[in-house]
Amino acid sequence: MPRKKSSIVVIGGGTGTYTLLSGLRDMDANVTALMTMVDDGGSNRILRDEFGLLPTSGVRLAMVALSAQHSLLRELFLYRFHKGTGISGMTFGNLFLAAVTDIVGTQKEAIEKTCQLLSVRGTILPISYDDVRLVATYENGHQVIGEHMIDEPHHDGTLRITNMTTIPKARISKEARAAIFEADLIVLGPGDFYTNTVANLVVEGVADAINGSKAKVVFVSNLMTKYGEAYNYTLCDYITDLSAYMSIERLDAVLVNTDTDYSVDAMEKYKSENSIPVVDDTDSCIHSHIQIVRLPLSSHEIVDPQKGDLVKRSMIRHDSQKLAKAIMRFIQH
């Protein structure tokens, strides 16, 4: 009788999740990606404001990452128009998903049909189907509404976020809840800490589902801090803030990169954006039950911005294969 594959649930969104899923695609596991649905910048703003749809950029990236199709089709779904005034900044993939939704009637079915078309190896699910906006409260009491305004602040980005929620309240989808309950391993991150990771945890029912799951829970530390969300954060800061949105007793391990030999040019660019490498200070704060796994996980390939992309993206990223192999260790032991 063939061995049952382990079930890995990745909770996140954006390029960090895309990188991890790209590595997990060919691994011997059943992979489910639970994606945040609160984006409202760039092409997602058009999807929301002009099409009346939920944002699909995170879902689209997950589709490409897990697709077994040839490279041209995958490149098409990543392609971003950069000419003209009406379509510039939009991605082919988001427009395609909008068209399929119009044909089949619901975004849920459109995602399922497109996953079939792309021969996705795994399952991709929105964490929620509710139309909501993120709300961040800062240490000075100021509130900002909207993922994009939190991600690329017009206010003092050194201020710390003290609370994150959504308006109206978002509820976990039944499919996402079932995936969490059935998981052997749950992975949080990498990705923008508040607008990707915490944005999922504040959805009503997500933290409870994680608490009730039998799965191991792993948090993947980001490589760089981020102005506006996690200015000058150390790893202890991330873990402390994470504990405000889920039971810290459910966190089994933290995966930390040790390869910080980044290029001078990349560091200068990040410095100009008030970002620095995340400092591993967990020896001073870690809970005794949490395993700290330190491995060289970064990629030495610098990712240049896409033409027409109005949203800031990470230049330095994890190596997808190294990260996926590190994740697989948690289900092989």
Provide the descriptors you would attach to this structure in a database record:
single chain, CofD, globular, Rossmann fold, alpha/beta, Putative gluconeogenesis factor, 333 residues, CofD-like_dom_sf, Gluconeogen_factor, seven-stranded parallel β-sheet, three-stranded antiparallel β-sheet, 10 strands
Task: Tell me about this structure.
The chain is of the alpha/beta class and 333 residues long. The chain has a single domain (7-332), classed as CofD-like domains (Rossmann fold), CATH 3.40.50.10680. Helix content is 36%, strand content 15%. The chain is built from 13 helices and 10 strands. It has helices spanning 14-24, 43-49, 57-66, 71-78, 92-104, 107-117, 147-151, 174-182, 193-201, 206-212, 235-242, 264-272, 320-332, and strands at 7-12, 30-35, 123-126, 133-138, 143-145, 161-167, 185-188, 216-220, 253-257, 291-295. A 7-stranded parallel sheet has the order 3-2-1-7-8-9-10, sandwiched between helices. β9 (253-257), α12 and β10 form a beta-alpha-beta unit. α1 crosses α13, α3 (57-66) packs antiparallel against α4 (71-78) and α5 packs across α6 (107-117). The protein starts with 6 loop residues before the first strand and ends with a helix. It comes from Candidatus Cerribacteria bacterium 'Amazon FNV 2010 28 9'. Belongs to the gluconeogenesis factor family. This is Putative gluconeogenesis factor. Keywords: Cytoplasm.
What is the CATH homology-level superfamily? CofD-like domains
Strand order of the largest sheet: 3-2-1-7-8-9-10
Rounded radius of gyration (Å) = 19 Å
Q: Which ranges are low-confidence, i.e. pLDDT below 50, for 5 or more consecutive residues?
A: none
**What is the C-level CATH assignment?**
Alpha Beta
Strand content: 15-25%
Organism: Candidatus Cerribacteria bacterium 'Amazon FNV 2010 28 9'
GO molecular function, one term: LPPG:FO 2-phospho-L-lactate transferase activity
GO biological process, one term: regulation of cell shape
Keywords: Cytoplasm
